[in-house]
Amino acid sequence: MNLAHRFLHSACETADKIAVFYGEARLSYQDLRQQTLGMASHLRESMGIRPGDRVGILLENHPEFIPSLLGILAVGAVAVPINHFLKEDEIDYLATDAGLRAVITESELAPRLAAAQTHLPTLQLVRFPLPPPSPPSLVLESVVPRQESDLAILIYTSGTTGRAKGAMLSHGNLLSNVESCRQILEVVNLDRFVLMLPMFHSFMLTVCILLPLLTGGSIVLIKSLHPPRAMLAELMANQGSVLPAMAQVFRALAAIPEGIQLPLRLCISGAGPLPASILESFNRRHPSIPLIEGYGLSEASPVVSVNPVHGPWIPGSIGLPIPGVELRVRDDADRDLPDLQDGELCVRGGNVMQGYWNAPDLTRETLRHGWLLTGDIGHRRPDGYFVVTDRKKDMLKPNGMNVYPREIEEVIYRFQGIREAAVVGEPDDRRGERPVAFVVMEENLPFDEKALLAFLREQLADYKLPRRAVSLPSLPRNAAGKILKTRLRELLRT
Length: 494
Hints:
Blueprint: H1 3-13, E1 18-22, E2 25-28, H2 29-46, E3 54-58, H3 65-74, E4 78-81, H4 88-98, E5 102-105, H5 114-119, E6 124-127, E7 151-156, E8 166-170, H6 171-184, E9 192-195, H7 202-214, E10 218-221, H8 228-237, E11 242-245, H9 247-254, E12 266-269, H10 276-285, E13 291-296, E14 303-306, E15 320-321, E16 325-330, E17 343-349, E18 355-356, H11 360-366, E19 367-368, E20 371-380, E21 386-391, H12 405-412, E22 418-428, E23 432-441, H13 449-459, E24 468-471, H14 485-493
Parallel strand pairs: 1-10, 3-4, 3-5, 5-6, 9-10, 11-12, 12-13, 23-24
Antiparallel strand pairs: 1-2, 7-8, 8-18, 13-14, 14-15, 16-17, 17-20, 19-20, 20-21, 22-23
Helix pairs in contact: 1-2, 1-3, 2-3, 6-7, 9-10
């Protein structure tokens, strides 16, 4: 089943319904259907795109992203969403690695493809607005059929360490994850999903684009994130009901004036850990709106687990595996570990990628015996809920003891005035390495390193104590909002 074919069938049944809210603009399902078919026709007839060809999408968060994605899939090609925050050389690497035949882009971003066009002389650019299709747009019957095993999206991981890798997601992978999310989030066609994170991110592709459009729901595409009150005004005006976002968004929503009641029925925190302090402040301000933490990664299409909509909600937990997905904790010898013992989280299910593009050795390392090794460390609680402790590569070993930065970070968040925190390791001649804390203070509050370290000394074992704490105006993040600890380690070396 082609994902685009599934959407077009759905669009025929709900032609007049609003599919996308974007500021004052409204796009019906019929509008999206026509745009999707127009893009598919242009790619096939004017650009010569054929099944299996890779086509990039280099667009900011605009409605055109959606028919671009679906149009690529309609001709049986492979969509390659490109992080629009990348620089020219980074895009060149990605485009060359994927072997792109074409890129759908906009005038402001097109210059960043100059290096890629040098290395890929046949690379074609598609820009909006499209010319009128000639011959006329594809009809539904001519959408290229694909098997569930056929490649649909090549999603490049955020690359917090080393070069980004292309996770190969099939039509079946994505359909499986959409259906699992539909069940566990109790999605209905009245839902309006609020889309504010970058559309190229796997979290948004599955949960905020494919999930609503394949279930007859709607997308509230936020036009402006700044200032925050503009984002809030759009959410309110278009009556968003489901908000998948990252922790910082929920921190902001916890601080809105008391007189404002959000129309949301559900909030989902992803794309990184949800600090307990943010969860607590959000629950105090919006006690009737569940804020549930989940877990996922691009290689799993991406959703793996989530706290149940109706609870119980366990602070600091990523919840339970979604339907059709297995989650286990294993040691380095692939042996299952008992409850409460930390090991690597491993995933199995229809959502797990086919492998990494052009990287057979890395694929063999990551996919073992049918299981996806996530690189995340965590454990299973006796009640079946899972907890992520940290990234395997981020684990510190002062004096040979395992120390998980997230444990220290959670304690730092309890210190008054801390807005953000991140802990990394610094080489130490006597202990091997020592933790160092980077913090961002709330606006207009002073930073007192001695007071913070004294507070931590009361809460943590001596070997877990940061050697020092450094205040920064902001923490370095990638486009998905994940803290770039590689950059923080670089700061320690300068």
